[in-house]
Known about the structure:
The chain is mainly alpha-helical. Helices cover 63% and strands 6% of the residues. A three-stranded antiparallel sheet has the order 1-2-3. The radius of gyration is 39 Å and the shape is rod-shaped. It has 17 helices and three strands. It has three domains: 232 residues, Rhomboid-like fold; 79 residues, Tetratricopeptide repeat domain (Serine Threonine Protein Phosphatase 5, Tetratricopeptide repeat); 52 residues, no CATH class.
Amino acid sequence: MFLLPIRTEAPVKRLPIVNWLLIGANVLIFFVIDVLGAADKGGWGAQIKQPLMLWPASLELHQFLTFQFLHADWMHLGGNMLFLWLFGNAVNSKMGNATYLMFYLACGVFSGLGFAWGEASLPCLGASGAIAGITTSYLVLFPRSDVTVFYWFFFFGQTQISSLLWILGKMILWDNFLAMRLARQSVDVTSVAYEAHLAGYFIGFVLTCTMLWLRALSRDQYDLLALARRWYQRRTFAAAMQGADAQARAVYGRVARVPGAEQAGDDNVGDVPLASGHPEAWRLRAEAMTRAANKDLAAAASAYQRMIALQADQFLPRTHQQAVANQLMSMGLYPQAAEAYEKYLKHYPRAPDADQVQLMLAILYARDLHRLDQARSLLTQCLARLTDPRKRALASEWLAVVTPAPPPTA
Length: 410
């Protein structure tokens, strides 16, 4: 299969003048040395070219710059310039001209060092090491962009591939790591400077990440460091929200606490639900609250009962707890309704209607559950606190019902 990148979608917001000049310089130098100075025209180009290549066995400082502008043939030149055009324009636009020029040359020098460290005999020439650095710089700056690739495999066409997949998978892993391993297993001498490519990829990635981290380059929400930071934040948040304690704090903030503690300063608010327990119970609690808020009380009561089955000490906000208790009583589920009213009084003892709820629970005990002792205790408390004459009269009537008659006297 033949694959060739032909376009990228990264924005070019200002003219990439340095990148154009670098492409022009490479083409011009090749034309002068390799075309005008070809063997059939006197061969003087080879005499100029030889000392300008990078020779690991006899290194000179100028070679680390000059070898970057030399190429072996038209295919070598064309391939490098295509990749420099595709990825270099956007990087140049992002970095600015002066920074981009220094970055390009630094990548080329470092790739030369990588080649010289790994190779002792053959010379090196070409811009591919510097362009490798430009490519990974593009990856850091525009990781979410796509690369349009032309393919030819029995038929031809074009498709878009993520720059992460193309650069990491195709260019670095496939074209270099795997190809270098296969080349070392072969008896043939390779003409590809894999060490220079890999050194260029490495330094381009490190330098660009460093410049972003130091704010030497303008940041945006789509560069690789921003994506990595958001991934870390999501991972940390997910880990922090694993426990029900954290879920309660996320809902109630600093007031999240264990039931039983009093909530000072607000008679309408009681305890906050226990910041622990079964995660499914918390989900059902949220469902019951939503159903109650939407006046779907039958569904709210169903979710409430499933919640209690999973976590018996769980309860709802005040208005929702009362609405669900009323619904359970209207459905004839008297033991469940009594339990819901009991939770209301336990967790919201200072609610404005607590005395009325206590009276309803006492009547429920007496009339439907035949728990006369509990009904009598609650009714006695109601009479001590109620001020409404009609409610006091109702409490007195039921107290008379549940109070046993005195034994007859002889």
